[in-house]
């Protein structure tokens, strides 16, 4: 439960808000690199943390993120001319360099030096992993780029979708953190869970068996420099627990359980205004390129959302009741809604643009949600009172994974999973298989040993 | 004329408002029974008196009306699974029985009894006359179901349309009460009124003649246990008056003048928010089933509104200027708009979402409107000050009609019409005919005696 | 730069606002005469200065502008019956004469004189130049109709388009005043400016050469009885300056530089609410009818906006990014947007519905904008403090032009251009040609002497 005041505190990220100030300490994805594909290509509108900006790729190929309103009289620089290392307002031809400095005022007398006094707001940008990253905070607090593994692997190894969603960022982040919903919202009915799962889980059939036989895992949360490491514990048979780990990264990123040796997953939620956000969904395989079949499946399957052609808007949304198929809901998928992202979006957007938390009733499975809110509020208040934060200055701390794996019952999960969470490590699936096989044999799981 | 404060008082019906509290003493139509046609069929959203709810038909065939937001984290139960005598949120599988009690929390540990502490708001529902009725008030004040005659007759005897309208309920109710608009808004131009009326009036031609020759009747209003009985008096020739009676039923129902021995009419206006409402239009013949021709005419004629297929929204509305036909308005119908309901909706919605009454100028023909407002305000204030109301606890008081008939000049209309207003009475049209015939002969009405 | 308070002061024109009171001292275009083409034709909604009105043409051919809400209960008179020298509400048949007096209440008793006490607001209207003009102020301050030249010439001599735009009127007016944007927003790239201009400028090729070779003219502003005369000064070669004159007419009209002996131009901006306005664009040739080719070009070219069929809404607007053609923007037109009006609308609407002036940075080229704002505020405050204004009472002061011409360097521009600004004068293009020819010869302008 949150008071309305605390909900406002957590959900408002515009200029000058405490939570906005916290967000402004972190690099944020501003747009896909491919949205500004070539030098001097068309400007693109970017709304982020309540600020209206325009992104360009300059003549030298670098990127710039500039205030949308021309400093002169406020015409949108979206309609501007991106040319010769700067953007020119079409209203009176004023030109701004990639640092925001006005460098030309062709409608003012040639002898005027007024242009030197005019400067537009420009935020630092860097490109990494197919993303143009932006830093909207003070120069003195600018950290290193967060070295997420997916941003380090070649483009061939990952698939990324950007989608614009109509709700405050926080209720989506809360859904990402809360792994207990998976077996329900994304589950199946009327079928053996082992059989119906997507083919991308095939290699981990044994672990999935452990998952599906316990829908009420016990949650453990550990604070880390990057945020929280959340472990969902299930019985692993004999002397192991089966742990599914979610990494929540301050302020609005989460890595949901990936497969050891297989696909890893990351969700970015970037506030636009207070009632919408950009969602970046990234799937990648660290060790190898995606096969054409895997990529086809990401583009046409249920893991990445289906978008209206030419837009970042999902085909299924509240306006069409997510095209829910009530017959399918009876006997096929639990939700009757097609698409993992759409299923998440259905429940989170149905809470309202900014969900009222004042009447919620949280259980033990909401421990990750509760702890993440507390960390966010504590950090924002810490900044408000003049304190500093620095754990995130080092980009290396983001180089990690969120595995699902077996750990010896005697060992704390974050200790036992330490190697598997390290993105540098290669980890053998064979170890897992050898460990879980006796459990399966004990329980006579049909089809597993076939 | 109403001050803005009084207009707010009368038009706001959300939780905690005085007028909302008055509405909550009465059973309200929540939706059509046929919208939740079968056990475990799909949930349907219902918005009523500012509250967002979901209606289901449970496994045993009974109905339930439950808060839309899941008590857990606020996901919409509209997307829920209606199964085994309850509704299950698709987010985490929490299940609520038809009394609102949480009966299952599959994502919490099996030993947890947290589910016992969680209860959703559920309002009592009953079915009668093809309607699921809801009672949103305190249990101690729950009255009997209102025994409207249309809800007692077999389904074969009535035709009912539910339509969603974009305006506050009150301006629509005021239109229903105010019968003096009928000869204008719903009238004809350039033709003899006797000839052009709908064929459903054919059997009462003589009375219709009396109606059409006097467009400025004198209004008389009598307070009753159910609300108001409003009589519009016209000359009936020789020693009779011709009375057309409207029953206004607290808080937002009206029965408009029906034909003795023929079709009776009832209008329900149920507030959704403060700027929209559900309108239920019911026509019925107490004594017999509608003929196929009559039913066809209700479905394709001008009495019931024409809806956008698959919705409860009218085809003609303010967004398309009600498809007004200016040529028709010149020489055919008075309004140039097709459909009785649409004609009403055109004028009431054109007043704005909540009509400003501070500049209105009311005449003697608005007496019903004035009195109904006073009754509403008096009752709501009575409740506010701790008073009680109980006239409506007995459902039998709603078993009545609103006839149009001749009454001896010496007899008060509500006395003279007493038998005709009694829904139990059968009344002979022959009596009326014998009474009015001399008038017609005196006046040499063409075609009446042919 | 304007504070938010001053911006509100300048931009709000509803009833009771200071700026609204200033506007109410002037006749305003209410709609095109052709929108109410014939006696007793259909009523048309008119929103002006925050007031919702209905325009009719009465049986005798005169026009009337009446409040949209029926004084009785508020139904819209748009749905009313325009008949026999008045408008009748379709709700209860109340009829209002063209002076607003209620003349019939057919639903009230015949003996009632209540109708005499009911009067609707009606504003004086007059027709001139294809426009129905309205005066919304006090009778005692009613001026003569403004005798704009375009409204005096026969209909054959002018082309007029009415378009509804979504922004406050002021930012559009500011664009009209500010002629320094023309060479940019409406300019060309990658071509010789002389070659690419519209054929309507052909006859003034020489002057256009002077215009295009100096994109940073110096501005001079002179206060006049009608508002401001703004001169943009460019070098005219040898002993002349080349002046392009804009007439700004209080409160929201501008005449942009026309051709001596050719097309003259006038822009009217009439506030509807505070976030939209009607724009009337008028082009005319004082001396002769437009040729069929000229008229075709106005209807299908880039000077007048392209409207969605059957509406006054532009095809290109913010919702479709003005269909900007980025390739064309690279090498064809400066903006990549088709249409002069649409180019203006793109920059002005992109500033927001009411542009925030608190961060603007104005240069010397914004002198006209600054001065016009000052005049508006001064006059509105003058009225607020009980003062009077009367320069505009005489309609003759609006009979003028805004020429572009050569003036001897020793002569103040408003003195030298006096004859050319006089709409009664005929002015010979030959004079101009003789004056500018030596300049062209000096500079060896290719193609000019061919």
UniProtKB/TrEMBL annotation, chains A, B, C:
Key word Methyltransferase present: no
Gene3D superfamilies hit by this protein: Rieske [2Fe-2S] iron-sulphur domain
Keywords from the named record = 2Fe-2S, Iron, Iron-sulfur, Metal-binding, Oxidoreductase
In this chain the Rieske domain maps to 27-134
Organism domain of life: Bacteria
Q: Which PANTHER family match?
A: BLR4922 PROTEIN (PTHR21266:SF59), IRON-SULFUR DOMAIN CONTAINING PROTEIN (PTHR21266)
Q: What is this protein called?
A: Nitrite reductase/ring-hydroxylating ferredoxin subunit
Q: Which organism is it from?
A: Arthrobacter ginsengisoli
